[in-house]
Amino acid sequence: MQDFAAAFGLAFRLIATADAGLVEIVLLSLRVSLSAVAIAALVGLPLGAVLAVTRFPGRGALIVLVNALMGLPPVVVGLLVYLLLSRAGPLGVLELLYTPTAMTIAQAVLVTPIIAALTRQVVDDLHREYDEQLRSLGVGWYDAVGTLLWDARASLATAMLAGFGRAIAEVGAVIIVGGNIAHVTRVMTTAIALETSKGDLALALALGFILILLAVGVNALVMALRDHRLEAARA
Known about the structure:
CATH architecture: Orthogonal Bundle
Helix content: over 70%
Oligomer: single chain
CATH class: Mainly Alpha
Radius of gyration: 21 Å
Shape: globular
Number of strands: 0
Number of domains: 1
């Protein structure tokens, strides 16, 4: 019990003093996850909006696929990205395996279906509401996608925050393609797993506290955006 108390005390001390090793891991985690969400948004937002606005053969199957990929197992994504980036893989010449870029790619693959599926639902609801008005103005599907994406920006920010929450908590895929190399690819989740197995509970607890704070912060932002959207709708 005393060892646990000492570990908690040291964990808070690491956070309070902004320990260099702790800060390095947190900053790398944020850089990788934010980059992954940015890439996922560039793909997922227009993809979801196009699925909501347009009608074409196979659309239903594609929607089912996107929704199914929201539950894609992280270790499977890690394995596929590993095969893609390994020396024997098609992109092996780029030498990206065991780098932050490889982890960003893996997280982006995981997050893109989430953002795309949520975007499709949000934009589809708006499209049903404004479809007649857009058609009366002669707005084509391409312009309609841009208009609806802009109009739904508050809800879509919530979708991206959800994607960030998924990315920052990821461990399976990033440990496969990143290798959990100290000072290179060690992020919060992989460091927690490693330090716990080593018995270094202080650093693991400190990183765990920060990860929880980030999760709470993301949820607080989601609720704030939702409340703001509801107030704007009432006005």
